[in-house]
Amino acid sequence: MLREVTLEDIRPIGIGAGILGTGGGGNPYLGGLHLASVIRDKGPQPLVDPLQLADEALVCVAGNIGAPTVSIEKLPEGTEMLRALRLLEAHIGRRFDAIAIAEIGGANSMQPLICGLQAGIPTVDSDSMGRAFPEIQMSSFLFDSAATAAPLAMVDAADNAAVIPAAVNDLWAEKMARNIAVSMGARAGLVGTIMTGAQLKASGVHYTMSLAHHLGSKVIAAQRQKNDVPQVVADVLDGQVLFHGKIGDVHRRTTAGFARGSVRIDSFANADQLAIEFQNELLIARVNGAVAVTTPDLICIVTAEEGEPVTTELLRYGTRVAVIAVPAPPQLKSETALEVVGPGAFGYDVAFRPLPGGVIGLRPAE
Predict the structure, then answer these.
(1) Domains, the chain, ordered by start
(2) What is the pTM of this model?
(3) 137, 80, 140: which is closest to 114 by C-alpha?
(4) 3-state SS class at 38
(5) Is 170 exposed, middle or buried (0-12, 13-18, 19+ CB in 10 A)?
(6) Which is nearest to 21 in space by CA: 125, 133, 115, 101?
(7) 269 Cβ contact partners less than 8 Å away, ≥ 6 residues apart
């Protein structure tokens, strides 16, 4: 596993996290620029093995909340994560020992690194999804744990800040935070989900930063060797290349703090079509009208030749892409988890049929 994140690690992490993000999590290129500037100023960020974290350590998650379509136009001030962290520390009356990853997807894989560097504390190599999801309650840290999403703190690029001290449940924490985020311009830094090291060990999807780095490194090597990069991605993630084609249509709108819409991909080989619906992240894929993959399994769009991730805000007519289906980590497939992240949670009246296998959350080989 990774022991620290340096400037050289940013590109592979960005590629890997962009793919794992299933279209969401924010633009990894812009997130990488921000992280690079902080590393140049403060040096590499230590990365902690989650199983080596002290049981009594106090941990929180850090990330951005809002619509990815906004993030490419509304740039951050740069210290939102740190200011939200200090605000939450002031609220609870003690300092945090480490930062966990809310979601490994896209730029949100890098926010806990930035926050940790600015605060002078390490980042834990564990997240709560093994991918990205659009809402706060969609977190393995919350499914079967005493941890709660609130209290949480939010800060925007100006001097606006808010603390939600309590919520009747995690869904209401999401509703309140989303409304605040919309009022902040559909982009804000958020710190919350306070837990102990013991709780993180029991509920986290571990080693996902290391997996993102490994995946990105394999993509870069395959690009240099001119290999079939989408197939390499599928092999690394124990998935399958579901479709090759060209984007034929995109419907996308930013509403209620989310990027929502659909994309149609037309096959290179025949008249087959793949349709995907998204809410920040890619949620359900249908081939010729028949359901092929649903959340929580991952639907990943990459460019056909280079295997670079294509996030939902960058879907464009005419782009040649490959679509890869990847098994979700087991933490997302329990009965409790599926009530929150399964197809029904997003309004789809279809059964979840899990893809076989999977590597997300497994300890990487040394």
Answers:
(1) 4-206 (3.40.1610.10), 228-346 (2.40.390.10)
(2) 0.95
(3) 80
(4) helix
(5) buried
(6) 133
(7) 244
Is the torsion defined by CA of 71, 77, 82, 84 positive or negative? Answer: negative
Q: Over the range 105-131, which residues count as b (16 or more CB within 10 Å of their CB) and which as e?
A: bbbbbbbbbbbbbbbebbbbbbbbbbb
> Distances from the Cα of 56 to the Cαs of 48, 53, 81, 86, in angstroms?
15, 8, 23, 20
Measured N-to-C along each axis, helices 28-42 and 10-20 cross at an angle, to the nearest 10 degrees, of: 150
The pLDDT, as a whole number, for residue 365 is: 66
Short-list 263, 214, 17, CA closest to 129: 17
Q: Which residues contact 222 (CB under 8 A, 6 or more apart)?
A: 228, 229, 232, 307
Copy the structure tokens of residue 31: 């997130």
State the pairing for strand pair 258-267/240-255.
Answer: antiparallel
Kindly report, residue by residue over 305-327, the tens digit of the pLDDT: 999 999 988 899 999 999 999 99
**How many CA atoms, within 13 angstroms, populate the side-chain half-sphere of residue 107?**
28
Question: Dmax over Cα atoms in the chain, in whole Å?
Answer: 62
Q: Can you read off the two tokens belonging to residue 339?
A: 């009530």
Do residues 293 and 242 lie in contact, with contact meaning Cβ atoms separated by under 8 Å?
yes
Rounded distance between C-alpha atoms, residue 211 and residue 208, angstroms: 5
Q: Cβ(279)–Cβ(134) under 8 Å?
A: yes
Q: What is the mean pLDDT of residues 106-120?
A: 96
Take residue 87 and report the two structure tokens written for it: 């605000």
Integer Cα distance of 110 and 186 in angstroms = 19
